[in-house]
Write a structure and sequence with these properties.
This protein has 686 residues and is mostly helical. The longest helix has 38 residues. It is globular. The N terminus is likely disordered.
Length: 686
Amino acid sequence: MMSEVRDTTLVRRAVVRLGELLPYIGIVTVTVTFLTVTVLGRLDLGLRGLYLAIPIMLASIWLISRRKRLERTTAEEHTPWMALSSLRFTHLTLLNALIFIVSIILLLLSETRPPGYFVLMAAFAGIVFVQVLGMARHSGWQKGIILGSLVLLALNLTWSITLKYPLYIGATDIPAHLLFTDSVLQSSHVTAAMTGGYQYVPLYHIFFASGIEVLGLGLRDGFFILAGLAYVPVVLFAYLFFKAVTRNERLSLLACFLFAVNATFIYYGGYMVTRALGFVFFVMILYLLFRQPRSVSTLAILGLFTVAIVLTHQTTLVYMTGILALLVGFWWLLGRPQANPRSQVKFVSVYLTVFVVAFMSYWFIAAPVFVHGIVSRIPAIAPTQPVAPTPPPDVTPPPDVVDPPPDVVDPPPDVVYPPPDAEDEVVPHLPALMRLRIPAMMFLFFAWLGIAYLLRRATDKKYVSLAAIGLVGLVCLVFYLENPLHLLPLFTRVLLVGRIRLLLTVFMSLAMAFGVVILTRSLREHKVELVKKAALPLIMGVIVAFSFFSIAGVANASDVPEFRNPYFGERRYFTVAELGAFSFVEGQVPTQMRVYSCYVARRYFRHRPASIITHPDTGYIDEGCLVLRRGELEERWLLFSGAGARYQYSLEDVEPGDSILEHLASEERVYDNGTTEVYMTFARQG
């Protein structure tokens, strides 16, 4: 017994030592990496990695400079950070109500979401942050207003894009999910039309079909209304999880706030596909695992949500298993309390075992297609992208070729299509790259502080589970933030790291909250009076900026011309004109005829033979219907495909005689609404 205690203490001390060394490790890693890529002649990679290097260096320097004082800093502060009376709290709530109403008016008056809308939403978030700092201890009604405000913020941001535009498509999977949902509506049961194995995980589409039927709404409106209502309650369960692990109300509300304004969380509000609903169940399960005391009813609800997540999204099960396994493993090493049959770590361990057995049994017995799919991915670390048909041999694709995810995989929310790797091409685009990464830089700065703090508290029994979460956060940063490893096919095509990010958001928000708390407390306890006075205004300004750039980031504001990044991302919705052209194709073009289009439109036609255009010279097409989103092409670019990769086709960069508009001039144009054109293409003779 004494040996076990000694081993446990040794492990905890090792973790504390890791927390003390973390800033030095960060500085050395950044320096060595930058020197290595410079020696290898890949300074472009170093420049792109500045968004990782800068916050790690700054946070590490601060940790080193405050290493002694940090030992006396505690995150558990129950008294309000600022004087905020009940009357003033009420006034701030009324101000937020006014902002909320004005934001809706702006949405109704503008063709696209105006920049002022995002400013108002950031101000709304900033006021909630102030209320978190000034909330009276144990004030139930103030806590309720804060949580209600975060839910309303999430709903506003979600419906402002899904209900405003003719058809929001996110990363292009939404049309397919609408098709699957409609197939359930029309037939009242799961059908073979649900391709990709979704007939084995039909709960998502059954839920939407049933809800639409009950509400009596159209497919599009019913789908997006239900999506918002199903997604935003995860804010409340995230708060309950934070409260269960921290036992601190204000810290939990702060973590919940950072969770609600996280760019990834905001993105999936509109792009509420199967993995997003799986994430909702995941957070509910996390809360139930950490909830104390446990009861029979809690176990029954836990079982219900387990069945629900198994029938919702197969990939989420694998990632959830990995995350929980890391958490349990670190927790066990730090605590070793499994001799107590009622211990939390033992309960989570048993649940994890049952969970894995449950979904693996389902896979092998009822849905072996999942196992076959996973096995087929293992040798496909460097697969070739099938492209049909191929262009003539004397044709070469444009130089800015990038590897795409397979057609069955939708790009992660912040996938970017960067310019070429050459240094002289990266430098002009560096400001755009850095603006794209501002929320990630702010997150990493605070998360690095929070993780270091949690590790340094590992010897405190109250911090065992939190130290384990800190270790999970440290290990999973490589998956959560884009880095050079994400260029490897192992990460993009096998591990699908873009799908892991959402599940990690809840842990990363907690780490960030600890970083915000210890930095603020340290500044407020500074010897210099000016620093003390500037601490709260500084932190408030940074958090409001974090909220704004998360809300108005490239992935979340590609519909706004003023915020649109000219180098990255594409518009994530179809216009009325584009949908009109698609409707023409559906009604007039025979179903067996292949449709050729850009990547985004091709995803709309996934229920029929369809291919991505491989080259602007369309003479390679024997016979088919070609849909050209000309408005999008002339405004920006389209994603075409060639040589097994996807590339950005732009009229600005096209070589003379290689414009798709010139090649299509000789084809039969059967539809043109000024924005989208439809051609019947035939191979040239002779």
